[in-house]
Specification:
Oligomer: single chain
CATH architecture of the largest domain: 3-Layer(aba) Sandwich
Number of strands: 9
Number of helices: 6
Strand content: 15-25%
Mean pLDDT: 85
Helix content: 25-40%
Radius of gyration: 19 Å
Structural class: alpha/beta
Number of domains: 2
CATH topology of the largest domain: Rossmann fold
CATH superfamily of the largest domain: Vaccinia Virus protein VP39
Order of helices and strands: EEEEEHHEHEEEHHH
Low-confidence stretches: 184-196
Strand order of the largest sheet: 8-7-6-9
CATH class of the largest domain: Alpha Beta
């Protein structure tokens, strides 16, 4: 069986307090249909921990390049997902953005709904393993890090992505730094997290 070099959280991801493990389970990394033999499954250890303040989080983290090796594509199929992407696009476009960065855009369905509303919109998706690329989208084949972004955007969106972020405070700070006009730095700073 392949050994996984987990990333381990030593402290709470929000406020750096101690963590207590409340659950341990094992599960296959790929949960879906496959033609491979079950003895080839990569079995992972899940440790769910809680901070003193009640923040639940994973203690053992699977390296991102392994976890998303074959893409993710959640939200690609089904009428409810189609409705979600359409309504989210309507919400986003109410503010008339001109240049959008979508983090974890995978299948590109949200982008296509936004571009139906405004075909002149500049749209970029940053995604490590896009399964389908659209000709009207600029792609950055990477995980989101400010170092991988060469321009600023007036709107950053993500859908069902935030729960996948290993360092949410760093993520929000990077978002702030690539937004034209920035955001509320004090709200996203580590100082705020310690005080709240």
């Amino acid at each position: 069986m392949q050994k996984i070099n987990y990333l381990e959280r030593k402290q709470c991801v929000i406020n750096q307090s101690e963590l207590e493990i409340i659950s341990k389970e094992k599960f296959p990394l790929f949960c879906g249909c496959t033609e491979k033999e079950s003895d080839k499954d990569l079995i992972c250890e899940e440790e769910i921990a809680i901070s003193k303040e009640g923040v639940l989080q994973l203690k053992k983290l699977i390296p991102l390049d392994l976890l998303y090796k074959n893409g993710h594509d959640a939200g690609a199929i089904g009428a409810l997902w189609e409705e979600h992407h359409k309504e989210f696009a309507n919400f986003i476009m109410q503010n008339h953005p001109k240049n959008i960065l979508e983090i974890g855009g995978g299948h590109g369905k949200l982008s296509q709904n936004c571009l139906e509303i405004n075909p002149e919109l500049k749209y970029t998706i940053i995604e490590p393993n896009s399964t389908k690329k659209h000709n009207n989208i600029n792609y950055i084949d990477s995980f989101f890090k400010k170092e991988n972004i060469e321009q600023n955007f007036d709107c950053i969106v993500h859908s069902h992505t935030f729960e996948h972020i290993y360092k949410p405070l760093d993520f929000l700070q990077d978002c702030f730094e690539v937004l034209t006009g920035g955001g509320d730095y004090d709200f996203f700073s580590p100082k705020f997290a310690k005080e709240s």
